[in-house]
Request: fold
Amino acid sequence: MPQALIIGAGDGLSASLARLLAREGYGVALAARNPAKLAALAAECGATTHACDVAEADQVAALFAAAGEAEVVVYNPSYRTRGPIAELDPAEVQRSLQVCAFGAFLAVREAARRMLSRGSGTILLTGASAGVKGYAQSAPFAMGKSCPARPGAICGTRAAPEGRACGACRRRWRHPQRPEA
Reply:
């Protein structure tokens, strides 16, 4: 049975991906800072759950060791701190960048090590429309979510010619007055 690892699992996009992958026959592993919140989703998908702070290299390495050889890795964590840029707490901004950007690097590194030696695999990094166009009082989130595309591009440049896939995903923004757009 192929395996999938979803890092930064929650009740939105990652839950939808977990359900889809389980229906397609994947064994699913879900990781979050607080895996207790994943109990219902894990039961629904037959998934395992794992605790992981993605800003900590040793925890990311331990997650990959515990989750097995994932054919598909999804990186979806975020950390938000809001406010006017002149009033933001530097420690909170740093945490946002560690989770959204540095954590993406750590996950791609661990996934690539395994996938390159195995000869196959797919890495998906989620973004957000804020990473493309900023929103008021969301500078740290926008900065952090603009970064996951870079590890994806770097991984794709190295791995794509060798038969591996790595890419960045962004939710499609919909105009509030034109939901069909």
